[in-house]
Design brief:
The protein has 359 residues and is an alpha/beta fold. The strands form 2 sheets. A 4-stranded parallel beta sheet has the order 1-4-2-3. Strands 5-6 form a two-stranded antiparallel sheet. Strand 5 and strand 6 form a beta hairpin. The relative contact order is 0.12.
């Protein structure tokens, strides 16, 4: 007869704290180690036995074009709480978004400075309007050092990076700057994600104080909308024991977002990905946004086109493009010249005013 004791089974959201601790004791963990390893979902069950079961659905949805918000509409029909992505929010942002959800504010009169701008954001307001869904803001608040660092990165550092891209002696140095920029961006984005996990309990407590009837539900359905490269945040919720009901495939990301996402997973990108990201970021993305993105109104279509174009290019092509921009100072024309040479675009007539993709 074996002396081996059967290991208690853990079944995701159905596991309780005592079951987890029994399993960790068999694994030989100390009390301190067991405390550090207890998933957040189980910690909340112990600290707040009057709270309902929390079911979290993380929507990885790009937010550039109006049609990017398409995933949200069906999700809103099956949720109690909506968590939009609003970095740099203030208490007035929460009040205003909740007023929209409660039908107290017309979406035609919304104030972009309070709750974000852009076609996708405006479409989300329209979808949320009048639903009565409870709003919870979990992103980085305005009055934090992290928000200041994010503003510095996107409003200052990224612009300086683009301006300096073709001032280096060679493409190699420009690619090194790309690594530095995206590594820094990934670090800031991971801080955003981890901050949301840290604040999850506090924001829920505030929500239940504002809407105490939500605590009467046997389970609370929470839909969180965040950008496509935040799969690491969705995985954090899985690791912490929350049901995540994620059924949609991860969205296709353009090369520069792939680079940031790679760093966010604490992985080292290869030179090929860095080169692809550099080329897309410095020239290709704006061209695709003007054409495929604007025509389709969808980020996934634009991302798919960007990836298919860089798939047909090699490091030597990026070197030629770099040298041509240094010689002419015209990124757009250098890009069109390269794409024509690679048979990716063609001009419709001798005037060379109109071109089309021929892939």
């Amino acid at each position: 007869m074996s002396d081996t004791q059967p290991e208690p089974e853990l079944s995701g959201s159905g596991s309780d704290l005592s079951n987890f601790r029994a399993a960790s004791e068999l694994a030989g963990l100390t009390e301190a180690e067991r405390g550090a390893e207890v998933p957040l979902a189980l910690q909340l069950q112990e600290r707040h036995p009057d709270w309902p079961e929390l079911r979290v659905k993380v929507l990885l949805d790009p937010h550039v074009y109006k049609a990017d918000a398409a995933l949200l509409a069906p999700a809103l029909l099956e949720t109690d709480v909506f968590v939009p992505e609003i970095s740099g929010w203030r208490p007035t942002s929460l009040d205003y978004y909740q007023a929209i959800a409660d039908g107290e504010v017309s979406t035609s009169d919304y104030e972009p400075g309070l709750i974000g701008i852009g076609g996708a954001a405006a479409e989300k307001y329209r979808q949320v309007a009048g639903t009565g869904v409870a709003i919870m803001l979990l992103d980085t608040p305005a009055d934090t050092e992290l928000n200041q660092a994010l503003v510095q990165h996107f409003d200052v550092d990224r612009k300086a990076y683009r301006q300096a891209a073709f001032t280096y002696p060679s493409l190699t140095e420009s690619l090194a700057a790309t690594r530095v920029l995206h590594h820094r961006e990934a670090d800031l984005q991971r801080q955003r994600e981890l901050g949301q996990m840290d604040d999850f309990e506090m924001r829920l407590a505030e929500l239940f104080e504002r809407r105490p009837t939500l605590k009467d539900k046997p389970s609370l359905r929470i839909v969180m909308s965040i950008g496509g490269f935040h799969a690491t945040l969705r995985d954090d919720f899985v690791t912490e024991g929350f049901t995540t009901d994620q059924v949609e495939p991860d969205p296709e990301l353009p090369p520069y977002a792939q680079l940031t996402a790679t760093y966010m997973k604490n992985e080292e990108p290869d030179d090929n990905l860095v080169s692809r990201a550099w080329f897309a970021d410095q020239a290709l993305h704006s061209l695709v946004a003007e054409t495929a993105g604007r025509a389709s109104g969808r980020s996934d279509v634009a991302a798919r086109l960007e990836n298919s174009i860089v798939d047909r290019l090699e490091r030597a092509d990026f070197e030629d493009f770099y040298a041509d921009v240094q010689a002419t100072g015209d990124r757009r024309q250098s890009l069109l010249t390269l794409l024509e040479h690679k048979n990716i675009i063609a001009y419709d007539d001798d005037s060379r005013r109109q071109w089309r993709y021929v892939m």
